[in-house]
Write a structure and sequence with these properties.
mainly alpha, 47 residues, elongated, 0% strand
Length: 47
């Protein structure tokens, strides 16, 4: 099982409706286009 789904379930169990509201209002992950070059360098450095 992907750790993302385990973490998601734990957060929903622990925080209930407040976490569901947060999840609905917060983007999962977004890198603004102006930062793509920096983000690419970061990813390459991790490889």
């Amino acid at each position: 099982m992907d750790i993302h789904f385990v973490e998601e379930k734990e957060l929903m169990d622990r925080f209930g409706d407040s976490y569901r509201e947060y999840r609905n209002e917060t983007p999962a992950f977004f890198v603004p286009p102006k930062n793509w070059g920096l983000f690419s360098k970061y990813l390459i450095g991790m490889a």
